[in-house]
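Re: that chain you flagged

S.,

Sorry for the slow reply, it's been a week of failed gels. I finally had a moment to sit down with the sequence you sent. For the record, here it is as I used it:
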Amino acid sequence: MSTKTIKPTESELEILQVLWEKDKASVREVHEELLKNKEAGYTTTLKLMQIMYEKGLVSRDDTFKTHIYKASVSKEKTQQHLLGKMINSLFGGSSTELVLQALGNHKASAAELEEIQQLLNNLKKQ
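Prediction finished late last night. Pasting the C-alpha cells below so you have them in one place:
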C-alpha cells in the first residue's frame, strides 16, 4: 500500500493502535480494548473494521467462524505519512516549528531530552 493511500480516520487510528499492539485480534477483542478509553458500540466497531478492510487498512482471516483482523499498514509508515501531512498543513512545512511547539507545550523527561539530543548529534554528523 502506498503512503498516498494511508488515510485512516481518528476512529480507524484507534483500531489500528489496538491491532499494532496485539498483532491480530477479533472484532470483540478490539472492541473490548476500545471500551477501556471510550464508549463504543460493538456494531460500530464491527462496521468500522469492515470499512477498514475494504480500504485495505486491515486484512482479515475468515477461515474460522470468528474473523481475525491484522493491520495491513505499518505503524511507522502511517506515523510518517500523518506527521508529514500535519507538518505541511499546520506548520507550513517547517519541522522546526513542529518541534518548538511540541517541546514548548510538553515537558520532556530527561531521557526524552537525551534521546532528542542524540538524534540532533547524529543529524549534524550527516
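What I noticed first: The longest helix spans residues 75-90.

Talk soon,
D.
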